[in-house]
């Protein structure tokens, strides 16, 4: 018997790849669960706490743990007309709507369509500026024991958009709170780029929101990729981001295949800030939004149909 087999036997845990009973704490009481633990390197399901309940998540090859896929198109109609906290996809009061006065039409989930964002002219997202209308998820409410060095992978599907004027942009970002100084934000835009006047994708990292240091790249020729992915392999405190994309297919949200690495050298880094590790003392958020940065395109709308969040222990 191996030391691992001995360990499982000693604590009466089911061996990987088999089912069995174990006790698990919900925060208030111990309860019996009967999980099927995936064998190392294989996919399977597990239970984890989101702070208020036990939810099923899945593991995939490479050690990534996937939270339940959010299909915005399948959710009930919901309007985010004012700033504040909201419950979306089972995450109770974990989503925040911001800058609602900069909506042209109130942001809303439309059943059968998705999360529809129609920004007003006022609004931008760059370095210390965050005036776009947005919806953000507090990741600590979704991922138990989230730390600054917890690897994160976020994949988003923009099902429709109509960027016809410079600065029309849909933004997805992983944000490490703007205070204290030195924390990092990672973002991708599907946009019409000001200097080139072409539809394109951009990616960037901003470090130090007080005196920002930003590394941003334009990724011409990739606009057809309407599934975008941000990977923080060293965690949101690691100051390194991988930026990937693919054209939507029926395999979405399978994030293990079909993703093209955008950035030359496979990664972007920004600033000379120290690597941040350990527990969070601030927030970590996933942001979804859109902006026009002052242009006159009153027809611009972006629709988000799906979202997949993954992490590693």
Describe this structure in words.
There is one protein chain. The protein has 313 residues and is an all-beta fold. The protein folds into two domains: 3-59, no CATH class; 70-311, Sandwich (Jelly Rolls), CATH 2.60.120.200. Helix content is 3%, strand content 45%. The chain has one helix and 25 strands. The chain has one helix spanning 3-10, and strands spanning 22-25, 30-33, 44-49, 54-59, 65-66, 70-71, 78-80, 84-88, 91-98, 103-110, 114-119, 125-126, 129-130, 134-138, 152-161, 169-176, 184-192, 199-207, 213-219, 227-232, 240-246, 260-261, 268-269, 284-291, 302-311. The strands form four sheets. Strands 3, 4, 5, 6, 7, 10, 11, 15, 20, 21, 22, 23 and 25 form a 13-stranded antiparallel β-sheet that branches. The protein has an eight-stranded antiparallel β-sheet with strand order 8-9-14-24-16-17-18-19, with no helix packed on it. A hairpin with a 3-residue loop joins strand 10 (103-110) and strand 11. The radius of gyration is 20 Å and the shape is globular. It starts with a helix and ends with a strand.
**Number of E-type strands:** 25
CATH class of the largest domain: Mainly Beta
Domain count: the total is 2
Largest sheet: 13 strands, antiparallel
Order of helices and strands: HEEEEEEEEEEEEEEEEEEEEEEEEE
In helices, the fraction of residues equals under 10%
Tell me, what's the shape? globular
Percent of sequence in beta strands: over 45%
- Poorly predicted spans: 2-44, 48-55, 270-275
User: Structural class, from helix and strand content?
Assistant: mainly beta
């Amino acid at each position: 018997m191996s030391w691992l087999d001995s360990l499982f036997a000693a604590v009466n845990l089911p061996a990987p790849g088999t089912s069995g009973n174990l006790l698990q704490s919900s925060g208030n009481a111990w309860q019996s669960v009967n999980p099927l633990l995936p064998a190392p390197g294989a996919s399977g399901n597990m239970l984890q706490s989101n702070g208020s309940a036990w939810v099923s998540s899945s593991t995939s090859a490479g050690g990534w743990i996937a939270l339940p896929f959010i299909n915005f198109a399948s959710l009930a109609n919901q309007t985010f007309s004012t700033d504040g906290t909201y419950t979306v996809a089972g995450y109770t009061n974990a989503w925040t709507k911001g800058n609602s006065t900069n909506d042209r039409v109130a942001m809303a989930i439309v059943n059968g369509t998705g999360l529809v964002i129609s920004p007003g002219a006022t609004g931008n997202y760059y370095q210390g500026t965050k005036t776009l209308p947005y919806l953000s998820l507090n990741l600590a409410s979704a991922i138990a024991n989230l730390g600054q060095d917890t690897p994160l992978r976020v994949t988003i599907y923009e099902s429709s958009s109509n960027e016809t004027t410079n600065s029309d942009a849909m933004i997805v970002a992983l944000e490490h709170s703007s205070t204290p100084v030195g924390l990092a934000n990672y973002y991708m835009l599907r946009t019409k780029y000001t200097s080139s006047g072409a539809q394109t994708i951009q990616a960037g990292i901003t470090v130090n929101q007080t005196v920002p240091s930003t590394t941003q790249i334009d990724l011409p020729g990739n606009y057809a990729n309407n599934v975008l992915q941000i990977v923080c392999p060293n965690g949101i405190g690691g100051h390194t981001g991988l930026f990937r994309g693919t054209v939507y297919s029926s395999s979405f949200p399978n994030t293990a295949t079909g993703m093209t690495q955008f950035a030359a050298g496979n990664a972007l880094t920004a600033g000379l800030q120290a690597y941040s590790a350990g527990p969070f003392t601030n927030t970590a958020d996933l942001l979804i939004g859109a902006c026009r940065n002052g242009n006159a395109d009153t027809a611009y709308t972006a629709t988000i149909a799906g979202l997949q969040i993954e992490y590693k222990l």
